[in-house]
Amino acid sequence: MAGTIAGQDRRKAFMLLSPAYLWLTVAVFLPLSAMAYFSFLSEVPFDGRDWHFTIANYRAFFETGTYATLLWKSLKLGLVVTAVSVVIGFPCAYVLAKVVKGRAREALFLLVILPFWSNSLVRIFSWAIVLRGNGVLDRAVNAVLPWDVKLNLMFSPTAIVIGLVHSYLPYVILTSYLALQAIDDSLIEAARSLGAKRRTILWRLILPLAAPGIIAGAVLIFVPVVGSFMEPRLLGGRLGTYYGTVIEDQFVAVFNWPLGAALSFILLAVVLAILAAASPVLKRAAT
Amino acid sequence: MAEVRVERLVKAYGAARALDEVTLDFPDGGFFGLLGPSGSGKTTLLRAIAGFVLPDTGRVFIGGEPVENVPVEHREIGMVFQNYALFPNMTVEENVAFGLHVRKTGAAETAKRVKEALDLVQLGHLAARKTHQLSGGQRQRVAMARAIVTRPRVLLLDEPLSALDKALRVDMQIELKRIQREVGITTIFVTHDQEEALTLSDRIGILKDGKLVRHGPPREVYDDPRNPFTAQFLGDANLIEGKPEPEGLRLSDGTLLPGLKGPTIAVRPESLKLDTTEPAAPFRLRARLQQRIFGGAMGTCIIDWQGRPLKAVGRDADFRGLPDAGDVWLSWPRESTIEFAAKA
Fold first, then answer.
1. Which of A26, A75, A92, A199 lies 20 to 30 Å (CA to CA) from residue A34?
2. CATH code of domain B4-231
């Protein structure tokens, strides 16, 4: 009897899982395998072009230092954007989870989610209007300060970081919020009754307990930022050449899909390697 | 170690007053039980002493010093929470040591005092465990050890045993009393369980709608509740109402209870005696036995008197010879009658 019921449960579980598996197969596995296949070709196999299998695309990464330099630049960008997002996002999540209540919380949540709901191009171009010389920010600062300052952040790494932080901040706020929400207020009260000051409570209690949420948010930000291309291109201008923009160029401008695919897989491998290397540290922080 | 005093404490949430002019002394080294139904303000009172609730008006003294403007972290209190609030990211030992670390106590001294505290609650062998590996009773003990290791001036317990099952609760009551006696610390605890309050406390205070309605040693409050609410809340009480007449209290069925003033009196269920023949006692009523409930050592009889339900409790042997239902005589000795002050 038990066996039959267990069998039924398994069948039910399989039926419930099958749409997800189907989706993974069609939407993730198939395109990714196609890309993996392309990355080993000498030419895009369209329009009857000649092509053969090669590992030249992967070799290209190692033959010149350019790609590695750009990848390093992108990784640094990822670290900076992640760090800035956590520094801005965690206090925000803390206020949302532990300080404000009711209506005010709903309103703040809406403001946090807003970047998700706006078109990314619109978002980036509105930053361009704010950041450029003689733009909104420049004028505002000059209106307040008595001396003359030239403030042109446009086409600088700062502009890229600002744009990316704005796009990805909600991730770290939402994941930290969930982790903070799960911390019972009585823990904080207990710490206070034992004589702990706010700073001690933050370092000894809140940060360790919220660490899993912060880390999840950081990973969610770091991975896409390393491969990002739109913000670097539009807000970085001439300085905005990153690993992600080079990959985009292979697909959109140069039409060298095999090289683009190979570069993408190298990025994927590097990111996975970084996460794997960091996982013991992350796991310790998460328990 | 210190005595605690609250003076004319008021705390309002909107129109509702959680604390309404509460004045109360908690003697040094005593075990004080705050008792009341939910919403009576007992937890608010405890949290006002702790400093989590800031009273609108009134004063709080710990060891004679006013503390209304002292934040929680400087009040030198120990508190045990209903859900224990153990820090899940720390071991048992680290939990207990937390308050000492905060005070920058030296490593040797910390280790010594943590060990003492854990030995006191008989958990020395579990020092290295994470808190989620503990049972409910063990968590309770860790919370106690953590609260007393800093040698606070007062120990506050918020429904400390309510999360435990009945058998464990009784064990922990004895344990709690032992620990409190050994440490000798002024302890104030909140409970809605009257039996727990009677067992543990050497003084109790009963709250209702934010007001303190009665306080004193448990036996005194039990024997002389002074108002119908306390009589019914602490223990059980059959309330009987009548019209005061010069020679006594006249009940609605015409019975005269000689010498009583009324208009309301109460009789504890354990004082009521049931007979099938008319007893000689002067206080007797004709009533109808509706149901007999067997409860092991003790039994309960549900009685209908003039449409009002009354209850009698006694050993099963006391009720031998009674029918399962039918007309009976109720009687009680004069000294078991609870009378209330004119208006309470």
1. A75
2. 3.40.50.300
Q: Where are the alpha helices (DSSP H) in chain A?
A: 2-23, 30-38, 56-63, 65-94, 102-117, 120-131, 136-144, 157-181, 185-193, 198-201, 207-226, 230-236, 243-252, 257-286
CA distances from A246 to A62, A261, A264, B87 (A): 15, 11, 10, 49
pLDDT tens for residues A181-217? 999 999 999 999 999 999 999 999 999 999 999 999 9
User: Which residues on A lie below 8 Å from B85 (Cβ)?
Assistant: 184, 186-187, 189-190
pLDDT digits (tens, 9 = 90+) for B254-287: 788 877 777 888 889 888 888 888 888 788 888 8
Kindly state whether A214 is in contact with chain B, defined as any CB-CB distance less than 8 angstroms: no
Is the CB of A207 inside 8 Å of chain B's CB atoms? Answer: no
Q: How many CB atoms lie within 10 A of CB A161?
A: 21
* Burial class of residue A3 in the structure, from the number of CB atoms within 10 Å of its CB (0-12 exposed, 13-18 middle, 19+ buried): exposed
Determine the residue among A184, A186, A193 to mutate to test chain B binding: the one whose Cβ has the most chain B Cβ atoms within 10 Å: A193
- Report the complex ipTM: 0.84
CATH class of B238-339: mainly beta
Q: Which of A163, A176, A285, A185 is nearest to A236 (CA)?
A: A163
Query: Which residues in chain A have their CB less than 8 angstroms from residue B147's CB?
Result: 193-194
Residue ranges, comma separated, of all CATH 2.40.50.100 domains in chain B are 238-339
Architecture of domain A65-286: Orthogonal Bundle (1.10)
By the 8 A CB rule, do A216 and A168 touch? no
Residue of B nearest to A212 (CA): B89
Ranges of CATH 3.40.50.300 domains, chain B: 4-231
Measured between CB atoms, does B150 come within 8 Å of chain A? yes
Residue B171: phi and psi, rounded to 5, are -60, -45
Comparing C-alpha atoms, which of A93, A234, A120, A233 is closest to residue A177?
A: A93
pLDDT in tens, A58-88: 998 888 888 999 999 999 999 999 999 999 9
Pairing status of strand B203-208 against strand B211-216: antiparallel
Is a pLDDT exceeding 60 seen at residue A162?
Answer: yes
pLDDT at B344 over 50: no
Chain B nearest-CA residue for A185: B85
Contact B98 A209 (CB under 8 A): no
In the stretch 71-110 of chain B, residues with CB closer than 8 A to chain A read: 71-79, 81-83, 85-89, 98-99, 102-103
B156 neighbourhood in chain A, CB within 8 Å: 193
Displacement of CA A176 from its chain's centroid (Å):
15
